[in-house]
Amino acid sequence: MKITLAAVLVLLAVCSSRAVRLVANKENITKDKLAQERIVGGQVAEKGFAKYQISLQGMYGGHMCGGAIIDNEWVLTACHCVDGYNPEFLRVITGTNVYFQPGATYEVDEFWCHCNYDNPTYHNDIAILHLKTPIVYDDLTQPIALPISPLKDGDEVILTGWGDNVLWGGTPDELHKLYTKFVTYEDCYEIYGGAPMLDVGHICTFTRVGEGSCHGDSGGPLVSNGRLVGLVNWGMPCATGVPDAHCNVYFYLDWIRKVMSQNCRECHCSASNYPFGRNKNGANKY
């Protein structure tokens, strides 16, 4: 399957805080790489299935994006989920499969986006949130380990989130899970016809038509072999038969560790700096 560059560059702006995602003309998609036929995405996750999963919300509730607990004070998500927000207005919901029934709620002290977020467009879409108070671990709330090696072709990847079950559908009450497969950068790049928004800072996943991420899954975790390997970034909404692209957590390990050390002078070029959006060292907000 291959997509022309012109098709990939057709963008759809979403009029909400949930995922800005990519749209292309399906007539430009060939059928030589990926299988067809499927039902729309995943199944309801059992209680405690993804103890590292968080729902990122505003101060008055409402699911915006997903994310993952990596430490009792730190959460990873996508930068496009938080760019331009005042961290004081953000809330991290933990310990639940129903986003409006929090096990616990935590306020955000500060967040950092990658200094080159959206520069080039759709690149470096990762953010790390620091919480005002430490997360209390329990039977439903635990951190997820960071990766120690790159994914291999065909590795199983588990996606969880509260994203739409169908394009422009509503947010489901319960957390959903989807078992999908890693697609190599080379194959994904070929499928997308060399689209400039895809680089080695992304991983791609795919199973079959009708299964994939959608609006509201943004920032959410992808896990393989018990480790956090990706954060939902962008795709062709939704589950149209081409891979979804996610932040490659392994690629950003050094940046993550530098921010968490709180001794990284250059990391502060993309702190929240509300209400001005990205500064001269970053990209303009959506």
Automatic annotation (TrEMBL):
Keywords: Disulfide bond, Hydrolase, Protease, Secreted, Serine protease, Signal, Zymogen. The keyword Hydrolase applies. GO terms for biological process: protein processing. It comes from the Eukaryota. Its main location: secreted. InterPro entries: Peptidase_S1, Peptidase_S1_PA, Peptidase_S1_PA_chymotrypsin, Peptidase_S1A, Trypsin_dom, TRYPSIN_SER. Residues 39-261 form the Peptidase S1 domain. Pfam families: Trypsin (PF00089). Gene3D superfamilies: Trypsin-like serine proteases. GO terms for cellular component: extracellular region. SMART domains: Tryp_SPc. It is found in: Secreted. The keyword Transferase does not apply. One of its GO terms (molecular function) is serine-type endopeptidase activity. Residues 1-19 form the signal peptide. Belongs to the peptidase S1 family. PANTHER family: FI18310P1-RELATED, POLYSERASE-RELATED. This is Trypsin.
